[in-house]
Amino acid sequence: MIEWLDTIPSGVIYLVVALIIGLESVGIPLPGEILLVSSGVAASHGVVDPVLLGVVAATGAIIGDSVGYAVGKRWGRRLLRWLGRKMPKHFGPKPVAQAERLFERWGAWAVFGGRFVALLRILAGPLAGTLGMPYRKFLLANATGGIAWAGSVTALAYAFGLVAGQWFHRFSWVALLFAIAFAWLAARVIQKRVERADAEDHATGETAPTH
Question: From CA 200, how far away is CA 15, in angstroms rounded?
């Protein structure tokens, strides 16, 4: 794939990366991550700009997931049943049930971390819409996950080449767990600080002199 990328203009590469990642995020099984890794390696050879590549990939991911969310909200279960008959490997009862369990347990964090896992990368948008997740909540998780995924994949591919692609393929579930753990820890720290600030404000209000 890298040899093929070397033969086409950089503008076309950006367009193809955004299109493939966007379509994958809508719910179509396509090799978005493989293409991004190959493009990141091509960037290390000066074929494309790595920063612009990361921006384009993140934009495609965010827009594609939002379209997938709208599709899931509109057609939902009926669409998943139809896809399950056509592509049981990706949309059959077992993979969909696994994704649904993750969504029920983790909510928006499944959207964020799911960007690092092939199955959830395809299902996140449609499932979030189908399960009725509020769009604002979905968009925040979708945007942060898309930026984190596109930035890290592009940077690692640019720095380490094809080895990075093999790492993501083998350890994407580990990346998901680390992403969820980090997000949970950050949320707990913020919650503690808010509770502490509320307690201090309450104490100050109680001890304030009255006139």
Answer: 52
Instruction: Count CA atoms closer than 13 A to 26's CA, side-chain side.
Output: 14
One DSSP character per residue, 49-98 reads -HHHHHHHHHHHHHHHHHHHHHHHHHHHHHHHHHHHHH-HHHHSHHHHHH
| 0.85 surpassed by pTM | no
DSSP string, 87-101: -HHHHSHHHHHHHHH
Compute the CA torsion angle 22, 28, 34, 38 (nearest 10 deg): -40
Instruction: Give per-residue pLDDT as tens, 157-182.
Output: 888 765 555 555 555 555 555 555 55
Give the span between the Cα atoms of 83 and 95, in whole angstroms.
Answer: 12
- What is the sign, positive or negative, of the torsion defined by CA atoms of 69, 71, 76, 82? negative
Q: Which two tokens stand for residue 67?
A: 């379209």
Instruction: From 16, 56, 10, select the one nearest 35 (Cα to Cα).
Output: 16
